[in-house]
Amino acid sequence: MLRGRLSPVSHRLMLSVVLGLGASAGWANPAQDRLTAMPEVERSEALAVFVESGGHSCRTVARTFFQGEDAKGNVFWDVECAGGESYVVVIKNDVPGSTRVMSCRRLRAVAGADCFKKLE
Prior knowledge:
The chain is an alpha+beta fold and 120 residues long. The protein has one domain (8-111). Helix content is 35%, strand content 22%. It is built from 4 helices and 4 strands; from the N terminus they run αααββββα. Strands 1-2-3-4 form a 4-stranded antiparallel β-sheet. A hairpin with a 4-residue loop joins strand 2 (75-81) and strand 3 (86-91). The termini are far apart.
């Protein structure tokens, strides 16, 4: 569980580590490779950074869930923040590992999909 808020320096460092800024793109999805190699606490912190970078508040992560990968190699991680708000973080299969964050409520409304369920 993530406690507290990362400093601006820690925030930028975490994004750099996960997204591999400046690294070569030799893997299918390097950001995903880095996330899966992290211990759970670090992965939770990294996903919280993505959520907050998307303009949402997530001071404490209660749980994370890997939904899966689509045909294009984009990966989907779900993040439940303390207080109950949940988000899906999409990490695109591109050189910088671009991300998109959407609340699970919005995902349900626009796509009819649910968070915390494996992709089919």
